Amino acid sequence: DAQPSGVPRRRAGRFNPKEDRMTRLLPRFVSVCLALTLTGAMAADGVTRSQLLIGQNITLQGGKNDYGTAVQDGIQTYLNLVNGRGGVNGRQIVLKTLDDDNKAAQAEANARQLVEQDKVFILFGSIEGGPSTAVMKAAIDLKVPFFGPIAGSPTLRRPHQPLVFPVRAEHREEFRALLAYGKSVGATRVGFMRSDSETGQQHLANVKLLSQETGMELVADLPFKSDVSDAQIDQMVGQLEKSRAQIVFNHGSPGVYEKLIRKARAKGLSATFYAVNSGSAQMAKHLGPLAHGMVFTQVVPSPWERKTAITREYQEEFGKQKPGREFSYGSLEGYVTAKALVAALRLAGPEPTRESFLAGLANASLDLNGLRAVYTREQHTGLSFVDLAIVTREGTFRH
């Protein structure tokens, strides 16, 4: 063969120490370069040899959102437990958390920052329907999995979203349980408080359909904007009074709903107020005696009773890590959602990618110490658990 110009010809049978050393080191050099390249690619997706970086947008409102704070306490409790035991396949789970201040636009901006700038592995754990839907929009656009939105919005499941994996049951099943209970005690006229948004319209459509199925009549639709004023809440109270609604329930936004209940009670309305799970423990505490007799749906078992394995586990770990903090539905839901996240990360394998994360959940049944979250390629059901709890005169919940 022709010898390239400028390259010294090696004479047959003559040993060249310098050339031989380079020949022996070349495979090692290539391996190191390849390893560095792969490590760089993994780091860009939030995965290193020592950690998994998870991006979280959540409604904390600078610590003023009691429900969001409780959820975060539960999430941190479980992740601390797992990290203390070595993490997932030797990697610590690290949360990069941004606060959306309960604003959908901020939630979407946060999600995009987490993926595009902070280079997180996946998105995780928002609360409230509007912000969660906004995070979903960014996740779909950026083609990044979104695991564990702690919200009951129908948009998270219908139409089917291959990148979105709710854990808790959706609000539709909570509405169904509340309407069935209302009918069982003789109520026929229903009021519904919802956000004045696309998601709120979908909730309204579900309530109308479920009301027809149960033989109830929706007599008061109470939409509100995020900047709702006291005067507007007064108008809702007037609407409830004219409609003669017998039961009223909400789809979230516990702070706004609490104001509505206070004003309705101050005016002497006789309607019975029910509520979905979001912020239930905090709402009952804030309302005090006004909460007596309220019926709430719950998407996790009672955090105060020790009847289930998951609650016993939660109480033990939460008591150790958050001494003095009260048990709550919010912190238990955060704990359960974080437990589901870890189970999903384990299914992604020892060298996780976003593709292997999705593949691991393609036909998965996650055992959450007695609760079971189910995912298939066609349907991301998550948990189906919905229970009812009534607030006693002592301010406690009885299931």
Side by side, the strands of the main sheet go 7-6-8-9-10-14-15
Largest sheet: 7 strands, mixed
Q: Work out the strand percent.
A: 15-25%
- Output the structural class: alpha/beta
- Spatial gap, N to C terminus: 86 Å
User: How would the global form be characterised?
Assistant: globular
User: What is the average of the pLDDT values?
Assistant: 90
By DSSP (H or I, 4+ residues per run), the number of helices equals 12
- Which residues form runs of ≥5 with pLDDT under 50? 1-13, 29-44
| Beta strands, count | 15
Over all CA atoms, what is the radius of gyration? 26 Å
Taken in chain order, the helices and strands follow as: HEHEHEHEEHEHEHEHEHEHHHEEEEE
What is the helical fraction, as a range of percent? 40-55%
Structure explained in plain terms:
The protein contains twelve helices and 15 strands. It is α/β, with parallel strands linked by helices. Strands 7-6-8-9-10-14-15 form a seven-stranded mixed sheet, with helices on both faces. It has a five-stranded parallel sheet with strand order 2-1-3-4-5, sandwiched between helices. The chain is globular and about 65 Å long.
Produce the secondary structure layout.
Blueprint: H1 17-44, E1 51-58, H2 66-84, E2 92-99, H3 104-116, E3 123-124, H4 129-142, E4 146-147, E5 164-165, H5 171-184, E6 189-195, H6 198-214, E7 217-224, H7 230-243, E8 247-250, H8 254-266, E9 272-275, H9 280-287, E10 295-298, H10 309-321, H11 329-347, H12 354-360, E11 363-368, E12 371-376, E13 380-382, E14 387-391, E15 397-398
Parallel strand pairs: 1-2, 1-3, 3-4, 4-5, 6-7, 6-8, 8-9, 9-10
Antiparallel strand pairs: 10-14, 11-12, 12-13, 14-15
